[in-house]
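Reading group handout, session on sequence-to-structure problems. Before we discuss, look at one worked example. The prompt was deliberately terse, the way you'd type it at a terminal:

> structure DUF72 domain-containing protein

The input record follows.
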Amino acid sequence: RELTVFSHIQRNQEENLSDLIQKVNNLDKSPDVREIFIIVNNHFMGFAPESVNLLKKRFNLPFYQINQQKKLSDYF
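And the output record:
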C-alpha cells in the first residue's frame, strides 16, 4: 500500500534492520572502510526520524526523540 501520512512508523522492517546492522558491523571490521553512511527516507518505515532513532539505538549512538515531522513553515 502507498503511504500518505509520514508521522509515525507504519511498516515493520525489523528483519531488514537486523540485516543492515549485521552488514554494517561486518564492514566496520574492514581496515579499508573509513566511513559508513546509511540513508533513510519516509518510505522505508513511514517516519524517517524514528527509523533513524531505531538504527541509532541499535548502534548505541545518541538519538533525539522526535514526535512528529516538522513542516517547512516551522522554520520561519
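Points for discussion. First: The chain has one domain: 14-75. Second: The chain is about 40% helix and 0% strand.
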